[in-house]
Amino acid sequence: MGAADVLGKQSLVFREPVFIQGWGSVVGKKEGEGPMGACFDQIEEDPALGAENWEEAESRLQILAAKQAVEHAGLSMEEIRMIFAGDLLAQSIASSFGIGQLDRPVYGLFGACSTMGEALSLAAVAVAAGAGTHVLALTSSHFATAEKEFRFPLEYGSQRPLSASWTVTGSGACVVGSRPGQVKITGITTGKITDYGLKDSQNMGACMAPAACQTISAHLRDFSRSPEDYDRIITGDLGYVGQQILLDLMEEEGFRIGKVHEDCGIRIFDRETQDTHAGGSGCGCSASVLAGWILPKIAAGEWKRVLFVPTGALMSRMSFYEGNSVPGIAQAVVLETVQEN
Amino acid sequence: MGAADVLGKQSLVFREPVFIQGWGSVVGKKEGEGPMGACFDQIEEDPALGAENWEEAESRLQILAAKQAVEHAGLSMEEIRMIFAGDLLAQSIASSFGIGQLDRPVYGLFGACSTMGEALSLAAVAVAAGAGTHVLALTSSHFATAEKEFRFPLEYGSQRPLSASWTVTGSGACVVGSRPGQVKITGITTGKITDYGLKDSQNMGACMAPAACQTISAHLRDFSRSPEDYDRIITGDLGYVGQQILLDLMEEEGFRIGKVHEDCGIRIFDRETQDTHAGGSGCGCSASVLAGWILPKIAAGEWKRVLFVPTGALMSRMSFYEGNSVPGIAQAVVLETVQEN
After folding, report:
1. Which regions in chain B score pLDDT beneath 70?
2. Which residues of A130-165 are buried (b: 16+ CB within 10 A; e: fewer)?
3. What is the pTM of this model?
């Protein structure tokens, strides 16, 4: 029917290119002090962003990132046809209470930390269907909202195991559309919920690695490509523990991705000096690193083709109380430069 | 680009028809005893569906509805290219833990009780983009999981105000695709988050009515249609209180929809005998009524054109604790018969 074709078992290839026309990233103080500090558009020194509670602070991150992306695309907010947004919180309240103010049509998403991959994928699908010249993909996370939602009261000062990740305070947004931009989305691979039965919510990298492996191997098979066809394959927030598991699992599938693999969670913090253990995590981790680091490099032609694969750990306080496992999901998006050389 | 065109401010019209090829509904005992009991494909007498906890019970509802819909479409689960699914629970765990077993690519959605409108919309957009011949839209709710998530322990036996709704135990699923079926989706209108500042989570109909009004009036303006162009305009779960507010608000917008308006929440229970106060609610309410009552009537040609508009109240336990308002959102889908006469 539309401007895309199914490919293999889980993928879609865009016959007419879908572009990323602008992007924006906003992060907290700790992220600003990390190795990527200089990459982000905006660093907020106040963790509460002047809000009365952490949830509202996270909503403000989304609004700031959305505005950055729209400005970067040279547009006004009224030109955004619809927003695809999500976050980690119960009933996605960071999104519900933030983007309402932008007065745009909205579809809310939930894919845990994979949500930026899902938002970009569905934004691209919508553009391919003809649903808009400009749509916005947007996600966020906040260290304090995530601790409150999933872990311990901050005041309790609980010790974190080395396998635990540190939720990124940040938001990233992309304007996706049919009018040419500096980066194009040429394909997507939709993830399957993958459950190896792991139950340790303090080791989410291990819980998500099987899903990353499922999506990346399906992607490479669907597109008949090898890892070398990508300048980078970049997962969202597997961290150090999850990365090693992913590399091992991929090798069992017959793919060696070690040379091209990067992980946003590993990149965003300095493990030695920032005490972040396994690395950064959260919807805002891959989203802010995408907007701050990955897209500029592709736009500049430094990387020709990147597979962006945010990963999510599907769990809630309730599923944890009930002794459930933590299934994972990973959504992959092929990003390519429009630079010729 | 694709097989759809933007229309007006919030809508999309499909140039090539997108079809609903099959549907399925599964509900609990109380819903089975209601006025629509005979409409549903399956009535589960055991509220726990043999599961160990309520969340798992809700997951089982989703799997049963998905299987009914796929069977009704004459397909096997392997032929479903992707699933759009969501529920009301924190981190959408009813969906995460249910549909993983179906081994299909998944995009998770969150739009509170509007999720079936969102799932149908995005399924249609995906088909229009060329993302698959058959995709599945699926949502659920369960009385016991919703009470646990949002209200009081059942054992506490708290009194419910007359404005409160009763969460439907049920799930509905639709197979959406490009191959002809008995019902077609001809357009959608994407909802905006609409906040009138109401804070009473025991009166969700009032919280959602402004969003329903925003989406329905935008829809009628975008399509240059009047309410009489529809055999029915059917909201999700406004209930008795929300319905009256919607009719009043619509009149202020210049549209009299009283003659064609129906509400799934009002229809699913008998107020006199079932003690359900304002009516049924939940993602599973509009989804099961869609699959059990609305789609069969359209397929039979009894109704030529219906606007299906599930409404959602965007709130969480945390947003309630923090004294936030309850914004609403409503997602509209135009359903038409393929019968000629």
Report:
1. 341
2. bbbbbbbbbbbbbbbbbbbbbbeeeeeeeeeeebbb
3. 0.97
